[in-house]
From TrEMBL:
SUPFAM superfamilies: Microbial ribonucleases (SSF53933). Residues 1-21 form the signal peptide. One of its GO terms (molecular function) is RNA nuclease activity. This is Uncharacterized protein. Residues 60-164, 205-257, 287-329 are annotated as: Disordered.
Amino acid sequence: MHFLRSVLLATACSAILSVSAAPTPIEADLATRDVEDSITLDRRTGGGLLKAFGKLAISGAQKGQSRRKDTKEKKRKANEKILGSVPRVRAPEHLTEGKSASERAKLHQAAHDKARAQALTHAQKARKEERRKMWESARGSSRKDKPSTRTRYRSPGEKHRTAHALHDAHDRMQHTENIPHRHDRFSVGGHSTTGRHVRQAVGNSILYHDDPVGRGDNKNPKPFRNDPYSSSHGDHHLRGTQPIPSSSHGGRNLYEYPVTHSHGGYYGSGRPGPSRAITSHDDHRDVFHGVVGHDPHRGGDHDDHYMASYHPHSGSSRSSNHYQDYRYS
């Protein structure tokens, strides 16, 4: 009996506390959003994105959540200002005649809610019209006179050719000799890149090989000259040697393509970045020779290229000198 009495007392106390601590709708909404935000961060962290993008991805997500909250708060204050100017509206008498007090109150509240909604709609339309007039005065023309910027949809044939080119480039990249592992790393001149981005550069180099992208003389992929270092180079071990130690290649049929941190790769806009993936394509044989970049601290000319240091991932059978020792045959 004593145990049963204790259980009943504890249940009653918890029920009283839950009733007294019941959150208001606004508090419940804020609490729900806070929980959703936390879940979003946990999913990003647990899903491995933290390892892929680092702290910038998390801080970016947090900034985005803060901006959303600030936008909602700004919108709420603007709506309150609009609704505050709406006078109290009552339902027509012919609708409330013969109704009970509670029914009349509901009808009056419904009429007032409708007036508030109409006020918000009118304010939104007025704001859009004001923005439209502002745009026309700044541009000197109306939207109707503006030429269409609608995206031109590709024909089925164009879609098929595009898909085939992407599939072929990806397949050739997968079968490229010497292709690095995704988790390998390359570093040169104080810059570092991953094998994943190098693989993307190799695939895009194959994709754009017949039709380089870019402007003027800076179209990529472009031939890589593989010029030897001068006989007066500061590092006597490099004098007379070439950046890509492929003796039988002699610098022929080598191509360079920028290594960027973008899946689409370099397509002519912006800066191409400091690193280049070097490949060759002879008789449908695709070979990756390494990553090169400039390093002013090596003591050579400012336009000299140097082979990037190779850092294989744990468990790899390759050595750190794999690309330096590789010889094209």
